[in-house]
Amino acid sequence: MKRFVDILLPLLLGASLLGFWEWFVAARQIPPYVLPAPSAIARAFSDNFTSLMASLLATLSVTVQAFLAALVAGVSVAILFSQSRLAERALYPYAVILQVTPVVAIAPLMLIWIGFDRVNAALVLIAALVAFFPILSNTTLGLKSADFNLMELMRLYGASRWQILWRLQLPTALPYLLGACRIAGGLALIGAVVAEFVAGSGTATGLAWRIVEAGNRLEIATMFAALGLLAFLGVAIFALLSAVEFWLLRRWHESALARQS
Amino acid sequence: MSLLTLRGVGKRFSSGTQALSDLSFQVSNEEFVSLLGPSGCGKSTALRLIAGLIAPDSGEIIWSGARPELAFVFQEATLMPWADALTNARLPLDLKKVPRGEANSQAAAALARLGLKGFESAYPRELSGGMKMRVSIARALAARPRLLLMDEPFAALDEITRVGLNDDLLTLAREDGITVIFVTHSVMESAYLSSRVLVMSPRPGRIKAEIALPPGPRDRLSPAFAAGQARVAGALLAVA
Lengths: 261, 240
Fold this sequence. Notes:
Largest sheet of chain A: none
Radius of gyration of chain A: 23 Å
Distance between the termini of chain B: 32 Å
Number of domains of chain A: 1
Shape of chain A: flat
Shape of chain B: globular
Order of helices and strands of chain B: EEEHEEHHHEHEHEEH
Structural class of chain B: alpha/beta
Oligomer: heterodimer
Largest interface: A-B, 20 and 23 residues
Structural class of chain A: mainly alpha
């Protein structure tokens, strides 16, 4: 019953909002280039279905590549930091500078350096830059949070630093890393969108570029359709990463365990 | 036969605290020795020095022969929450790269000796405090140690669980001929378990009294046990 309400209630609310929107646009005779009715958006979606799906795939591909690149780079640098205090002291300030500098400001430079003939690589790099920092900082924190007594015990039993990393530090860091992945997944999508905006028309083919293009042509309904797809993509990425997190932690971590009452 | 000798061992922490000064005692093979003292008297520091986890500033720790195989049990069970009981008990064997099959059977045998047969695949969160401590002791025994260092292992457990674990520990240590150095702040526990109790003074820690107890087995309700316990308590009160 509770589950039923959890699903039905938001659906009902959404449906009534759409109904009101449809009625409002018709009753007030709002022009479609200001606010198209939901039915017009649905029509724009089905009319442009093939090309919108191609754009969705393009944005998804950039997002996934950027996320994976940020994951590999973030975890690698975090492991480097955990093994060498010197490396952490030397590099961490630069990681912070990279994080606090708005990516929109760096994006044009990246495009120039990498070149418009390899625009996909530039998009991936820009999006990966956005997703990199939360993975780095959370994994670094996680690797440092290992139980001190367990670490001493392992040393007593003659563990090498790699055994300690593999058997103690990485498992300890896993919940931190997975939490960071949920954030980084959304950030990679945002980064991909920003990168497409900056790359501009003609070279990029993703959903963000479709929004810019449709806006220029005053095809507001198509704009809404692309926007809806972006939101859907963001929710799907978040849900997928949450499911992965739950699945990996379900046996042992507090966050995945239901309190017995 | 002597196993190890501490001679004039001192340790000062980087914070400036003098944890131990001029700590001297000897431990014989297959002996059960308790280090008894108030909190902060450097008992745990002494254990960590013997384990080689930290080095003394002065004095020396002398082993008769090569340093024996060591195991350590902490006050908390200190298990890996992401691993089941068998994997936890197997840890020292895994670190020594013992083949998986052999390691599994040794760890399972250690768990069985502590009454945990059937709990091999249970995760720490599914176990009670006493059972977690049993896994922790099984992990120590799986390493087949000659010397077992225990740092207030039962301090966080309730009295009944503690009594049961005391008895099991005595049996296991005797069966395997393990030497035990047992840190505690419980007079009753030290009087029940040990052949010898070393009473330590507060910071900086050193041995203030040494009480040899008649050999076991002991009956907690007997007058002889009460008398031994009173001697230990008297020595502890004299220090405080």
